[in-house]
Amino acid sequence: MTKNFKSYLKFNESKYAGKYVVFIKGKLFKAGNNLLKMIEEAKKKYPKEVPLITKPLSGESYILNDHF
User: pTM of whole model > 0.90?
Assistant: First the structure.
């Protein structure tokens, strides 16, 4: 299990419902509605890292990207 996924499991989703969240190096990097912009920023700042990207929904979450 990756650092990003472990951090996500401890994450309080209710504050970010309906927004995309990006975890890098085991920490929340960004949260917002413009996913493409956040991915560009993440690639620029951390070009060798693989982020975990998800969008917490009301009660359910879907993992969009993670390497286990």
Answer: no
